[in-house]
Every structure is written in structure tokens, then in C-alpha cells.
Amino acid sequence: MDAHCRHRQKQRTRQVFASVSAAAQGSSELAIGNIIGSNIVNIGLCLGIMALMFPVKISWNLVRREIPIMIGAAVLAFLLCLDGVVSRLDGLILFLCFLGFGALVYVLVRREQRVVTAALEQYEQEEGLINGNINRRVEVGRLGVGLMFLIVGANLTVDGASAVARTVGISELVIGLTLVALGTSLPEFAASLVAAARRQTDIAVGNIDGSNIANVLGILGVTAMVQPIGVTPTILQVQIPVMLGFSLLVLFVSFDRAIHRREAVLLLSCYAVFIGLTFIGQV
Question: How many CA atoms lie within 13 A of 64 on its CB side?
């Protein structure tokens, strides 16, 4: 469990730095494009490939609780963007909702603590993830070095993406929706793919769902609190509704508590259409 949690924390921290760095450098389209594009990548590409490769069964709790929360987060983001900016107050609202989601998860985990703890301990033993000899100074040092590289890497990512956009004549929004979003979603995809291969599909789908909730409530919230993000009419009228549409699509294909190959093809096809139309719009 500790290894999985550390992976998710690193992934979220990396994306926070990338989005905050972009916003701080005045690349609002790159920042919000990264968040929206990451959610679309998670659903259309990652979930689609995963369901195409492995049978994906989904628990009823995900269908009735976590997936609707993901949809609600997308709706909230849309409403807060209607005035053309995600202000610091909007960011605070999003972040407070993220904290509320975290509190809900904590309460639910506490309710099932005995069962969950026993299962995770068995998993950790099987995977060799338990390490009783932890040197706190070493771990703090690793954390500090990791944060330093994250900051440097985030700035390099933003600078590189912006340079690519200027060189080939593609907008920063498109770069954020595609290249940067894909890069920040790959570690999440790898984790979900491994979980699906081990027939732990609830973890795999929950990882994607939780990632999307964290992107909208946590990352967008923190980014807007640091630097308000401008929202262009195109983002408001096209990209955010598309993200909401993909979120609704997850609920649609999950009603029978499984995602079959034909539904995986639907997810991948929708993602391919989105990418095609995104780049065609640049012509």
C-alpha cells in the first residue's frame, strides 16, 4: 500500500508543479489544457486500452459513488469557468471540495479498516513491499531531492511544450491537451495496467477515477489559488464539455458493472476523434 500511495503522491505532485509552473509563466491555456487533457487521456486512452487487454469488472460502489463524484467535479469546474476565469476564490472552493472528498474516502476506509488492512497486508507480503527498516533522514533527503527535480522538470516541461507550440504553430492549449497531458498520465496508466493484469480491476478503475477527481478539484484548485487561470471561450464551449462527456461515458459503459471490449473500442474511438478534431482545429 505504501508503495502505491507514494506513486500516486509523486504523480499528483508532478502534475501540480507542471500546471502551477505553466500558470505562473502566463501559460494559462497550457495549465488548464494539461488538466482537461489528462482527464480525457485517462478515460479515453488509458481505460480504453486497459479494457481492451483485460476483462474489467467494476464494483457497485464505484458506479454509484466515485464515478458520480467525478462527474460532479467536472460540472463544478464548468460552472466556475462560466465567468471566463478560475479565480483564487474558485480555486479555494475546488480545493475545499477536494479535502471533502479526501475526508469521505478516509471515513469509508475506516469503516472497512479490518477487511482492507488484512487484504493489503497480504498483498504487501506477496509483493515484498513491506520494509520495516525505514531511515527517516534518508527518506526526508530523498523527498527533498525529488521535489527539487520535480520543480526543475516542471519548468523544463512547460518551456519545452511552449517552444514546440511556437515552432510548429500549434497553440499551447493543444499542446497541453495532448503532449503534456499524455506525459503526465503515463505513470497513472502504468499503475492501472499492472493492477488490471493482476485482476485487481477495482484498483485500476478507481485509480483512474480518483486521478480525474484530483486533477479537477485538487490540481486545478491549487493552481488557481497560486495564479488565477484565464478560460477562453473555446475551452468553455468545447474542451470542458468534452471532458464532462467523457466522464458521463464512463458511467454509461459501467452500468452493467463491467467494461467489455466493444465498450473499450468505443472509448478509444472517441479519444481518436477528439485528438483528430483537436489538431484539425489548428489548421
Answer: 3
H or E element that contains 207: helix 201-213
Cα–Cα nearest to 53, from 270, 173, 204, 164: 204
Cell of 21: 509552473
For the segment 162-183, what is each residue's pLDDT rounded down to a tens digit?
Answer: 566 667 677 778 877 887 777 7
Cα(84)–Cα(204) distance, rounded to whole angstroms?
35
Q: Which residues of 228-263 are buried (b: 16+ CB within 10 A; e: fewer)?
A: bbbbbeebeebbbebbbebbebbeebbeeeebeeeb
How far is the C-alpha of 187 from the C-alpha of 97, rounded, in Å?
25
Give the range among 30-39, 96-105, 199-208 with minimum mean pLDDT.
199-208
For residue 140, the model assigns a pLDDT of 67
pLDDT of 62 over the 80 cut: yes
Contact assessment for residue 101 and residue 217, using Cβ atoms and an 8 Å cutoff: yes
DSSP code of residue 42: I
Amino acid at 204: A
Nearest-angstrom CA–CA distance, 21 and 15: 10
Residue whose C-alpha cell reads 479490518 in the numeric block: 114
Cα separation, 180 vs 163, whole angstroms: 13
Judged against a pLDDT cut of 80, whether residue 283 lies above it is answered with: no
